Amino acid sequence: MIELSKILGKPIQSENTKIFFEKYGLKYPKRDSISSQSGDDSFFVVQRKMSVELNFALNIWNPKYPPVPDTNKRKGMYVPLLSYAIIYNKKNIDLPYELNSQISLEDLEKRFGKFDYNSKWDRLYKTILIDKEKDISFSVNSKDKSNVHSMSFSIETPVFPLFSIYESFEKRISINEQIRKEALKSLEWIIKNEYFKNHNDIVNEGIDGVKKDKIDVTEFCKNYLKRGYVLESDLVIGQETIDTYNKDDDYRFGKACHNIDRVKEIFNSNKY
Question: How far, rounded to the nearest angstrom, does the alpha carbon of residue 249 sit from its chain's CA centroid?
Answer without folding.
Answer: 15
